[in-house]
Structures are given as structure tokens and as C-alpha cells.
Design brief:
Distance between the termini: 38 Å
Shape: globular
Oligomer: single chain
Number of helices: 39
Largest sheet: 8 strands, mixed
Number of strands: 28
Radius of gyration: 34 Å
Length: 978
């Protein structure tokens, strides 16, 4: 978590003191002993020795008139050249991170830049950019002269000097490079140079790297036998100027023969690429190579030539890695991918097995598999990607006030991509999710991924555009189609083997409720199997959070959750969504979690040799699914929409005054700060502006002896009030939108505004509340357990643990828990936080009774905090209770699942208006479905499938034993009525 995304509770540091002018007020001078110790400490540091010199100083005057160096970068450009270069290069992106890296490296070391292919155009750009951004100018470059760019009077003056015999000293290129390195001047070496013709072989520049190696060895020899000596480092920085992100293709075309290899373009191709792509070009730099450390890692008996060849290989590898991150692997069209899959021995064996099992011929199965491959395979085209991104730039600019990407996270993604292909795993809230990742990757110089999309998006013309933009289409369910299942497995394995980046949604479908759904294991398991089976050494799983201040499908989700039928995506629905273009949806956020190495996780779990069907490997797959979702929750963002919705929905009374609402929002922000959750840009900015007010509230609370824990006073804390007031300007637009959409109503009184929820619109607010519900679920479950078990405000730890375990197990399909933290560990940590906050106090039992935990009195602010936390999980408690009650009341033996859900919807609304339940969002069809999954797994009911339909069968208790559903309703009801 970057510090900018955290809001510390500590007051700001005092400003630095003004300079002391009065000698009597000056700080005392350090003692002689202190000065002596400081000098000794400095003397113990290794002395940086300048490079040894073999060449005398030959430069004289500005520009080095006594030394011929036609390639050195120009320190001054005439008005004409300055204007021209600014016009053609001003839009080339040079990331500030790379500028800072060059600047810091050049401060502590001497720099040698390396580039792949010789290019005058690239060199001109870097001359322009280094001047523009104040970076050290290159002294030596191989194979390039900039004499023709110098002012005319200098050219004439140089000619006159030659006529009178005052020629500048000329050195061979390698000596000129040595001369510059001796004086700490930067150099740039092109590793390859084209021959005269486009089809000529590349000419390699190994001799320049030998010179660099010799310079490093000479520096080291200066310090031989002198432990207090340290040579000034020599650092090699690989760099690229990317004019086009088009991947390299498997087949060469006639244009490649005429204009040169796209990887090493000829002058004509380079000029065309510059004209077409100059507004999208960008600089990319690889990891610096410390030459001293590099030499130390090699064998002692290697010659300078051998070291130079190894250095060249390391530079080319670094440049190749950067190009692969930008352009991806060699691109093959869909037809070739299909052909190669069908020819593999594994696919041929699969075809023979399927033919034998289905009593068909190999040719029939082959045609079927080929048809399935044609149905699903992507046909990636960078031209379509560029067109899509151009369209999305306009679209996103119209729809969203800002698209904010996590720059630090993107850099982590880039770093992970240098070592292994990426598997991108975003949460799924909206159809926009399909578009935004590819858009951001292309805009930030990363190759867009292949995307797993449902076949419901295959309709014309969107399906064609998506397929050409990297989407491959899969059916929602194919368990009963072994041929399709095998085809998909081999297609995905092929993508992994080729090194394509893959994006899919680990939740399966879009979350209509706003919180994370349980993971689906099909695609994830196939990728893990591919790594385990050797298709590739490793892949990196990247959790991605995509968040919205407002989702475009808001109304559609409300209809579905209220029992309406899900509408199938088609061209009619697409055209209807054009009204989206006339709406604004706030900010869109994308944040990247810590990449997970599959190979590393397999080694830790020791499942590399386990059969795929073994229990330990299946457990590993499930844990990886939850680890990814937990990684998404770790980088989830707290937005004004989310905190406002949660503060409104968790208020126990009919209406809430604005002042109280802001206090409750301030409390939520305190919890977010404590748990190091990232805040949205508007919240973060508001808190920074009002930081002195929050700091003052902290000081006042400390002076009053109030406990510092966030949970202690909850919304009653003066710090919560200060935070709430600080973000008032960020919250007011959200309240205005909720009023406009008629989710809430406002009534103005003399001293305040009171907001009241509109009952039928609670489900809309519930979506945004659920965006951040994971932050407080452990506390909410414990609060429910406390209020469901205490008598006379007292309970005991053993009972609390059992009840909290029951709730946690019952809601296993609702919430994502940290798979690396056991229930007992989480329970102990949460109970400890309740005790620190004074919500629970340990008191000794009577005589030999068990130690009790005493809760707060009703007039204690902690009691309100306990109610607040309990209310967070009440909607799920009510939903599961409604399900169990509905089955008991309406199901004698068996009922179609669809009919049961409709009955539950009708019954839930009646129960809400009768007052049996308080949260109408508990009637969500999604929650009912997940509650059914839990009840089936826990043995309360059974699901029977007949064809495509499923039926729910009630399981009665055994003879003499109570009905399990009856027990479940009684157990859950005490958490509702408490």
C-alpha cells in the first residue's frame, strides 16, 4: 500500500524551525570527541577512486574543438532544430520513473546506455529528451554523426580550420569511448547495425563492449590490494524507444523482405512507423546492470572478449524481455493456432479416446474439435486493439470524470511480466471490466491480454470486434460435453505455452451484489494444471480490483435481484445502452495486487508431483482461488458511494440526521485507516486538506483520556466527527445523486437535514455498501455472536467461539476469508481488538465458574458501536432465515428451484412489511441462491438435477432427531431478534 493511499492518525510533523540569527540562541558546538568520531567514521568508508587515465586531455573550449567527436549529443540546438524536434518528438512519452532512474544512476555511477538496433531517429529523440529533462548528455555513440545539425557558422569555422591545418585530434572509436569513460562521460552503444540492404545480416558491435569491460577492469585494478578503496561504478542501462506495439508475426511478408525486419526496420519502414505512431511512441528502460557485480558473477578465467559476449547476451536478453512485455510473444493467427493444437500428440490421443468412448471415428471427433476451436479461438489483431482504444478514449472521457490507474501496481505488473507470463484476474462488477484492462495496458505500453469471455457476448458485430481484440469465447457450462471440455483445456494450455497473457474473471460472472463472489475453479484449475504439466515453467497470477463510483448496470441489477429475469445480451440491448453516453458515472479505479508465482506456491504446498485428482492438489486449487480473491480485497478502494451507503443502511432507526451520518462515515474511514485500506482520490484529497482538524481532534481525545482505538467510541468519537466533516464535500455529491435517483428522501428541519431510506431502493444502496463490507466482516460476525449469546450483557469465550464458527461456516459462500489465516487466528485477533476497545471486558466468574466477557451498557457509546457492527451482517442472517423458513412453509418433499426462488421473493416482501425482517435487501435472489448452495453442502436440503432443471428436496430429521432446517431457523432467528 503506497503511503499516499493511507491516512495516518498521527498529527503532522511541525515545520522546520527558522534559522537562528542570535548567537546566544545558537545550538551548542559538538564536542571534540564527537567531531573526532565522525571523522574516523568517514575515514572508514571506502574511498571512491576516479577512473585511471590513459589519454591526455584533448578537449579545448566549448564543444571540444581539439577533439573530433561527431556523434556526441548537442548541448545547444539552434532555433530551427529546436522547433522542429519539439514538433516531431513532443508527444513521445518518457515516464518520470525512467528519468529519475537515469538521474539517480548518473549521480552515483558512470552510465553506458545500450540499444538494440542502430537508429539515427532514436538517437535524435534522446538528444532532444535528455536536453528537455536535464539528463546527462551522451559523449560517445557508435556509427552516428551529428555534424550536419550544428549551426552553420560552426560548420564554416570548422572548414576554415581544416584549410589552415588546424584539424582536431581524431581518435579511433574504441579509444574515443575509452576517453569518455575515463572522464565519467555517458556513452550509448547500438548492439546491432544493419548492412547496406534490408536483407543483409546484422553487424555486431562487440568491440565497444570489450572497451567497456576493459574500462571496468582498469578501475578495479586501481583498487587491488587496497580494501579502503572502491572504484566508481560503471552501470549499463538497456533502453528502448518503442514506435509501435505491434507484435512480431510468425510469418514474414513481402514487405518485410523489401523494407526490412520489423524488429530491425529499414529507413523507409522506420520513417513510416515514425509518421504513423509518433503520438503513441514511448521510452522503456530495463533494469540497470552493475558492471562490477556482473563481472564478479562470471568465471575468473574468462577473457575480455568472453566477458563482452556475455555482457552483450545479457543486454540483448534484457531488451528482449522488455520487448516481450510491450509486444508479447510472436503472434499466430487463429487458424494456425487451431492447426497446431490438432497436430499435438496430446490432442491426437484425446481424439482417439473420445472416439472410442463415443463409438465414433477419429475424423468425426476431429471435425467436432476443430469446430469447437473455431467457435472459441481469439484472432488477436493490434489494429483492432488500437481502434478499440481510440474509441474507448472518447467513450471513457464522456462517461467517467477520470480513469485512475494504480501506477505503482502497474510497475509491479511490468516487473512480474519480465520473469513469467501473466494471468490477469480482475473482480467483475460491470461489462466495462472487459474493456478497461486492455485499454490501460495498451495506454501504458503493455501488451493487452487474451480475454476469456462468455459466449453470450459473441453476437454480431460485438463478437467479431471482441474476438479480434483478443477475446476467446467459452460456454457457461460444458461439464456434460467431454469433447468441448477437452478442446477448451488444450486451447488454454496452448495459450499458456505460447506465453500469451490471459485475463479471466475468477468469480465467473458479474457480481450483482457488489461484493466478491466465491471463486470458480474451471479456468484457474486448467491454468494451474498447464504449469504443473510443464506447458510453461511459471505464470504470475495478478489480482486486480476494478471499482466504480457508479456502475452503468445499476438498474438492471436491481431488477434481477428483485426476481426479474436476466436479459440476454444482444444487439438490441447494446443499442439501448447508447443512453449511457449521456450520463456521467464518476471515477473509475483500477488497482493491482501483488502478483503470485504459481511455481513458487506449488513448491511451498509441495503438490508438484501430486495427481490432479488427489485431495491435497484439489485443496491447493481451492486455496489459490481464495488467495486471488483475498488479494483483490486487499487492494479494494473505499469510495464516497460505499461509505455513504454503509452508513445509511446500518443505521438502526428510520432516518438519520446529516451530522450523525457524517460521524458514522468518519468512523468507517477510521476503520479503513486502521486496516490500511486505500481511499479514493476524492476522500484522500479531502482528508489531506483537513488534516490539521483531524490532528487537533486526536490531540483533544488524548487530553480527555479517551481510548485511542477506533472501535472504542465508534461514531461518538471526536476523531470520527472530524473525519466526517473533513470529507463532507466528497460525500455531498453522493447524497445528491441518491436523492436524484430517489434511493433516499431528505427532510429539512431548523437545525439539520434528516435522510430516510426508500424501502424499495435499499438494494441499490446495498450494492455500494458491499464494495467495502469485507473490511468489517470479522467484527460484524463477532458482534452478532455477542448479541446472540449474551444474557444480562455477559457471555463466555467458548460459547462465542462456537457461535462465531457457526456463522462463519454458514456464510462461507458470502464472504472471502484469508486462506492463510485459520478461523481461530482470526477470531482471537478480533476478540483482542474488542477487548482493547472495551467493547468486551473480562470479569471473573462466580466461584469456579468460567471467566465471563461483559458487554457495554446501553448508555455506553460502545453499545452503539456493537449495534452498528451487528447490523452489517443482519441482511445475510435474515436472508438465510427467510430461505429456511420458506422451505419449511412451502416445501413438502420437492420443488423446482426456480419456483422456490419466486415464492421466496413474494414471502420476503410480505415479511418485510409485516416487520419480521428489517432489510429488504435480504430478499436478493443472488443471496438466496448462495444460501441454497450452503444448505445443500451443510446437509439441510438436497438438490436433484433432471436434465437442465434442478429441484430442491427437503431433508427431514431421522427418527427421534429434530428437523435440521427447524434447528437452523431457530439458531438464525436469535441473531435477528436480539
Amino acid at each position: 500500500m503506497s503511503p499516499s493511499n493511507q491516512w495516518p492518525d498521527d498529527p503532522p510533523e511541525p515545520a522546520s524551525a527558522p534559522a537562528v540569527l542570535d548567537p546566544s540562541q545558537a545550538a551548542p558546538r559538538p564536542s571534540e570527541a564527537a567531531v573526532s568520531e565522525a571523522l574516523l567514521a568517514e575515514a572508514r568508508l571506502p574511498a571512491r577512486v576516479p577512473p585511471p587515465r590513459r589519454f591526455p586531455d584533448l578537449e579545448g573550449g566549448e564543444g571540444g574543438s581539439h577533439l573530433s567527436n561527431p556523434g556526441r549529443m548537442l548541448s545547444r540546438l539552434g532555433l530551427t532544430w529546436r522547433t522542429l524536434l519539439h514538433l516531431v518528438f513532443r508527444r513521445v512519452a518518457f515516464d518520470e520513473r525512467y528519468q529519475r532512474m537515469v538521474r539517480e544512476t548518473a549521480r552515483d555511477a558512470d552510465v553506458v546506455f545500450v540499444m538494440n538496433h542502430h537508429s539515427l531517429l532514436d538517437y535524435l529523440y534522446f538528444n532532444y529528451a535528455f536536453l528537455r529533462f536535464g539528463l546527462p548528455l551522451v559523449f560517445f555513440v557508435n556509427g552516428i554523426s551529428l555534424r550536419w545539425m550544428r549551426p552553420l557558422w560552426r560548420i564554416v569555422l570548422a572548414g576554415l580550420r581544416r584549410l589552415i591545418g588546424r584539424r582536431p585530434k581524431a581518435l579511433p572509436d574504441t579509444d574515443l569511448l575509452s576517453y569518455g569513460l575515463e572522464r565519467g562521460r555517458p556513452a550509448l552503444i547500438f548492439l546491432k547495425r544493419r548492412g547496406l540492404w534490408p536483407w543483409s545480416p546484422d553487424l555486431h558491435a562487440v568491440e565497444y563492449l570489450e572497451t567497456v569491460i576493459e574500462a571496468q577492469l582498469a578501475r578495479q585494478r586501481e583498487c587491488d590490494g587496497r580494501p579502503e578503496c572502491e572504484p566508481r561504478p560503471l552501470v549499463v542501462i538497456p533502453q528502448l524507444l518503442v514506435w509501435s506495439q505491434n507484435p512480431n508475426r510468425y510469418r514474414r511478408t513481402m514487405s518485410d523482405l523489401v523494407f526490412g525486419n520489423p524488429e530491425a526496420p529499414g529507413r523507409v519502414r522506420k520513417a513510416l512507423s515514425f509518421v504513423i505512431n509518433r503520438s503513441r511512441a514511448f521510452v522503456q528502460m530495463g533494469q540497470p546492470i552493475d558492471l562490477g557485480a556482473f563481472i564478479a558473477e562470471q568465471a575468473d578465467d574468462l577473457s575480455v572478449a568472453d566477458l563482452a559476449r556475455k555482457l552483450r547476451f545479457a543486454c540483448l536478453q534484457a531488451l528482449s524481455v522488455e520487448e516481450r512485455v510491450i509486444k508479447g510473444p510472436i503472434l499466430k493467427d487463429a487458424k494456425r493456432i487451431r492447426q497446431e493444437i490438432l497436430r499435438t500428440p496430446e490432442m491426437q490421443a484425446e481424439i482417439r479416446r473420445l472416439a472410442a468412448e463415443g463409438d465414433r471415428t477419429n475424423e468425426e471427433v476431429t471435425k467436432q474439435v476443430d469446430r469447437y476451436l473455431d467457435e472459441m479461438a481469439a484472432d488477436f489483431s493490434m489494429a483492432y486493439i488500437e481502434g478499440m482504444c481510440l474509441f474507448l478514449t472518447v467513450l471513457f472521457d464522456r462517461m467517467y470524470s477520470e480513469v485512475i490507474a494504480d501506477s505503482d501496481g502497474l510497475e509491479r505488473v511490468r516487473e512480474a511480466a519480465r520473469t513469467a507470463p501473466l494471468i490477469l484476474l480482475p473482480c467483475h462488477r460491470s461489462h466495462v471490466d472487459y474493456l478497461v484492462i486492455s485499454y490501460l495496458f495498451y495506454a501504458n505500453g503493455l501488451i493487452p491480454p487474451h480475454i476469456a469471455a462468455g459466449d453470450n457476448l459473441k453476437f454480431f458485430p460485438v463478437g467479431h470486434i471482441f474476438r479480434r481484440s483478443g477475446a476467446f469465447f467459452i460456454r457457461r457450462s460444458f461439464k456434460e460435453n467431454p469433447a468441448y471440455r477437452a478442446t477448451f483445456r488444450h486451447y488454454l494450455r496452448k495459450l499458456v505455452r505460447e506465453g500469451y497473457w490471459i485475463e479471466f474473471f475468477p468469480e465467473g460472472g458479474r457480481s450483482r451484489t457488489g461484493k466478491m463472489l466465491p471463486p470458480k475453479y474451471g479456468v484457474l484449475a486448467t491454468i494451474l494444471d498447464a504449469v504443473k504439466g510443464g506447458a510453461t515453467h511459471d505464470v504470475k497470477l495478478v489480482p486486480i480490483y476494478v471499482g466504480y463510483e457508479q456502475v452503468i448496470e445499476e438498474r438492471a441489477y436491481t431488477q434481477e435481484l428483485s426476481g426479474g429475469e436476466k436479459k440476454k445480451e444482444n444487439i438490441t440491448g447494446l443499442l439501448k445502452t447508447t443512453k449511457v453516453l449521456w450520463s456521467r458515472y464518476g471515477r473509475l479505479y483500477v488497482r493491482f495486487g501483488e502478483p503470485l508465482s504459481v511455481r513458487e506456491q506449488m513448491d511451498i504446498a509441495q503438490v508438484g508431483d501430486s495427481p490432479n485428482e488427489s485431495p491435497e492438489y484439489q485443496l491447493f486449487v481451492r486455496r489459490m482461488g481464495y488467495r486471488v480473491l483475498d488479494g483483490i480485497q486487499d487492494v479494494a478502494l473505499v469510495t464516497p458511494s460505499a461509505v455513504t451507503a454503509m452508513a445509511l443502511l446500518t443505521h438502526p432507526k428510520r432516518g438519520v440526521a446529516k451530522e450523525v451520518l457524517l460521524r458514522r462515515i468518519g468512523f468507517l474511514l477510521g476503520v479503513a485507516s486502521q486496516k490500511q485500506a486505500a481511499l479514493s482520490k476524492s476522500l484522500e484529497h479531502a482528508l489531506k486538506i483537513r488534516r490539521p482538524d483531524v490532528a487537533q481532534a486526536l490531540e483533544e481525545a488524548a487530553e480527555q483520556g479517551l481510548p485511542p482505538e477506533v472501535l472504542a467510541l465508534g461514531a461518538a468519537s471526536p476523531v470520527a466527527r472530524a473525519r466526517g466533516l473533513a470529507v463532507q464535500e466528497a460525500v455531498e455529491p453522493v447524497l445528491e445523486r441518491y436523492l436524484k435517483e430517489k434511493y433516499i428522501e431528505a427532510r429539512t428541519f431548523e437545525d439539520d437535514v434528516v435522510y430516510t431510506l426508500v424501502d424499495d431502493q435499499r438494494v441499490n444502496l446495498d450494492f455500494y455498501k458491499n464494495n467495502i463490507v469485507h473490511l468489517l466482516i470479522p467484527e460484524a460476525i463477532l458482534a452478532a455472536a455477542v448479541r446472540g449469546t449474551w444474557q444480562d450483557r455477559a457471555t463466555d469465550e467458548h460459547t462465542l467461539r462456537d457461535v462465531a464458527r457457526f456463522l462463519s461456516k454458514t456464510f462461507k459462500y458470502e464472504f472471502i476469508y484469508d486462506p492463510d489465516r485459520s478461523f481461530d487466528q482470526q477470531f482471537d485477533a478480533t476478540l483482542e481488538s474488542f477487548e482493547r476497545a472495551g467493547i468486551l471486558v473480562r470479569v471473573p466468574g462466580d466461584d469456579d465458574a468460567v471467566e465471563r466477557l461483559l458487554g457495554p451498557a446501553e448508555d455506553d457509546p460502545r453499545h452503539e458501536t456493537l449495534l452498528y457492527l451487528h447490523q452489517i451482517c443482519v441482511p445475510w442472517i435474515e436472508s438465510y432465515w427467510l430461505l429456511a423458513t420458506g422451505i419449511l412453509e412451502t416445501v413438502d418433499e420437492e420443488i423446482p428451484e426456480k419456483d422456490l426462488l419466486k415464492k421466496l421473493q413474494r414471502m420476503s416482501r410480505r415479511r418485510f412489511h409485516e416487520g419480521d425482517v428489517r432489510c429488504l435487501e435480504a430478499a436478493s435472489t443472488v443471496t438466496f441462491k448462495q444460501a441454497l448452495e450452503a444448505c445443500v453442502e451443510l446437509g439441510y436440503v438436497a438438490r436433484v438435477r433432471r436434465g437442465r432443471d434442478s429441484f430442491i428436496r427437503r431433508l427431514g430429521g431421522t427418527e427421534g432427531a429434530p428437523d435440521p432446517l427447524l434447528e437452523l431457523t431457530a439458531e438464525l432467528h436469535r441473531f435477528i431478534g436480539s
